[in-house]
Structure formats: structure tokens, C-alpha cells
Amino acid sequence: MAGQAHHTSAPPSAAGRHGGFRFTAVSPAARPALGVLSPLTGYTPPPGAVRPADHPVAFAYDRPDDDTAVLTRTRFTGRDYTGRLGNHFCHALCAAPEELAGLRPVELWDTPQRAPSPAPDDGHALPDLAELVPGSAVGPDRVRRLLDATGETGVRLLERLLTAALRALAGEGAGACLVSADPERVVDWIAAVSYTLPAGLTARLTFTTYTARPEDDHRHLTGTRPETAGRAPAPVFDLDGLRQDGAPEPCATARFLARAWAGGRLDVVDAVADLWDAAPDQGARAGVRRLRAACALLAPDGTAVAPAGEPTGEPIGEPTGRDSPDCGLADSGFADSGFADSDFADSGLAGFVRAVAELRPQAAGVPPERVRDAAERHLATLTAPLGDVRAALAPLPEPYRGAVLAGLLTALEAAAAESRAEVLDAEACAFLASLADGAPGEEQDLLARAPRTALHALRRAPGEPRRAGLRILRLHRRGLWEETETYEALRDLVHAEEPEPERERERERERGPRPLPWRRGHARERE
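Now predict its structure.
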């Protein structure tokens, strides 16, 4: 059951001995939460507001803790019972998060359950609500009309707004401030973000359509009017002029999702949500990480999706029912939307693997080839040392562990020698070299198909050069390396052990002239 409460300035009564702002009517389920609701019921008019139309409605969604979801709708009502100007009425709804399942909080913007004015029977209990009923003003069609009206400029604004929202949800940056003279326009863009993200992640996205103090607001998306926009910290989105100030560069996840909307490919957005839903809710940060991984897996070659009705690229996999993310994505169109290390902020390989593991790819019907390709795209941008690769891969079951390893080796093989050397530290080299020691299998095949990476790892793994040479010969003996590349690998290994002539000559100059052998004994005698 969801609780509800009314809050306004009222005269003293049997329910409240002191006049002023207080809860005038409360349902049984809301009474234990009054301490949480009270700080969320305030309202400050915009500077210079005179007419009722100058006072926008403040519709807000908050998650004060993991077990409570609060929706408030606050409007200016003019003078209070004393004749003082500045009264307002807040209708608050509180519920357990699971009671919003299947709903996006912004859908309650015009819920028929909202009260237009305080209950006349001050002090009497309101009824609890068996369910929260969405209104009819907010839905996917509203987002479609918004993007049709704003065109490419609107899509690019959505990319940046999604990026800011995801960073705020993951605790990686501040929330976004949405500026407009029309609160309905703020609702438009909150709806655009809400319908782009999976419903479970949207349930953690807090917002308000209006505040006069954006600099003090704690929510992920904060609406304000032009009169108070100067107080807002970056990033700021001018919704009337479709401009932004201080917004981060769009991340690959945001580009992929926004382009799906732009192309009319809601099936892609749904496929991302289905894949995201395969794992249990583990909080906002983990939810963002899973979303990034889901988009990386569903975006072939890191590109955008084709518009509805246009030819698409390879299918994602064999259909396995509703859980299969087979939505037919394009292989061209938005070439710079590759999924990079910045999309997995906690770490490179380990962060990516953790995100993929949380998606439960086997249960969701994701082919290993998708994981391999996504890993290759993501890991191609790594610059930090890989560290303990074995431990990083441990959370993944087979065949996905091997798929990530295949993507990693492909990325390393294509990298420049300097980048490869920077990424392959001693731990990573030891792990890759150990693949040559085991029984013949897929891992050795992967190592053999990446000869430059394998040689680098074999030469720098702990142990004497003889062991590296034996590993190279073992790969050759098992038919994994041809004679030519085996010879070149051994030759490079030998040359690597020989000091460079110029460097050796420099060392000789630093040591100075050495005494001839027959003079050494004579010198000792004189001492």
C-alpha cells in the first residue's frame, strides 16, 4: 500500500495546536514516514513572481533511502489563513520501490490520484492507495514528438543529458540542471531520459521539475526557471534554446541509446532493457555499469543503429524468446560511438568483465561472439596495466571467459608496440605465458593467433630466457606456429638478450680504460 499526506499552512485545530505549515491529513501508511517527507514539502517562488502563472508546479521524485520512494507535487496557493502571501500545498505520495514496478515516476506527473487542494476534514486520515495510477500525459509518444520537433539538435542534447544523468547515477559527477520558462518542457526531457533507460534504473533517477535554488538541490535532474538559472552549477541545459553549458562529452552508451530513439528503433531500447533486467538490482552504480555493458554487447562495431525500415546488419544471435537481445543492429552510421574505457569507470578489464558478468549473458541468450567483439572494442582503448588477468576473468563462466580473452588478445595484437608494452605488465605477461604451458586447447589457439602479443609476453614473463624459448617451441611443435614465425620469434628472443652495441660502447666509455692483463698484478704489487 502507498501512503499519502497533505502539507500546507493551516490554522490551529484539534489535529495541530499550532498554526502554520504542517501535515493536515495523513494516511496510515504515510504516518511512519512523516520525518522523511517533511524536508521534501517546501516551495520557494521564483524571483519577481506576481501572477499565479508565474509560479510553476514542482513535481519531484526522491529516494531518501533504498526502501522508500517519494513523489511530491507542490503548487503555490497564494495567501494562507492569516492573509500572508506565500502559501503552498504539497501532496506527497510514499511507497516501497517495488510498488512502482512497471511504472516510471515521471508518468505520475498528472496522476488522477493527485489532490487539487488540501482535504477539508483537517486531521482526518486519508486512505492508503492500493496502487499508483499513472496519468495520460507522459508516455513514449511524448518523447517521440519531442525528438521529431527538435530534430538532430534535440538528439545531440539528449546524448549529453543522458551522459550527465548516467554519471550522476553512478556517482561520477553532478546532476544536470534543466532550464525552461515552461515546466511542461522540463517534463518533456525528464521523460526522454526516463524512457531511454531501463525502468529499473529509472526508478533510481531522482528529479524535480522546479526549484528556485538549483545550487542546493540534490537530485539527478533539477528543473528551474531562467530567472534562477545563473545559480545552477554545471552542467546546465537551456531547454528553450536547446543549448548546454558545461555538459560532458557524450559517452558511447548515451550515443547508442539516443541514436536508437532518433532512428525509431524502440526495439533496440527494449532489447537493452531486457538484457539489463536479467540481473538483480544491486544499486544505481552497478545498474549504470550493467547498462553500459548491455549497450556495448548490442552495438556491433560500436556503431549506431539503423532507422526503422532500413536494412540492418548482422543479427545478434539465434532467437531464444523474449530474453534474446536479437534486434538486428546496423554495422554503419555513427562510426565514432565505440565503447571505450571511459564507459567503465572503475577499471579497464576488471570493470568490463564485472559488468558483463552481472548481465548473466548465458541466461540472457547472448552469444559468446558478442562478448568477444565487445571486449575487443572496449579493450582496444586501454592504457593502464592489465594486472592479474586471471583474477579479472574469474567472475565469468565459460565460454564467456574465453570470449573476453579472445577479444583482449585481438585488441593487443592490433595495438602499437608501445601501447602493448604499456598494458602488458609482469602479471599479465605471466598469465599469457602460462597459456603455452597447459594442455592443447582453445587458449593456446588464441595465443598462437596473436604472435606479437605472445612473443612480448613470453619474453617478459618471469623466468629465464630458456623457458621462453621452450614455450615458443612448444607452440610450434603443436602446430600452432609455422616454422617462419617460430624462427623469427626465437631470433627476436636471442637478440633481445644481447646488449645493443651502441649501449655497450657507452658503458665502456663510462668505465674508462681497463688495464691490460699483465699490468693488473703489477698494480696490486705497488699497492
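The chain is about 40% helix and 10% strand.
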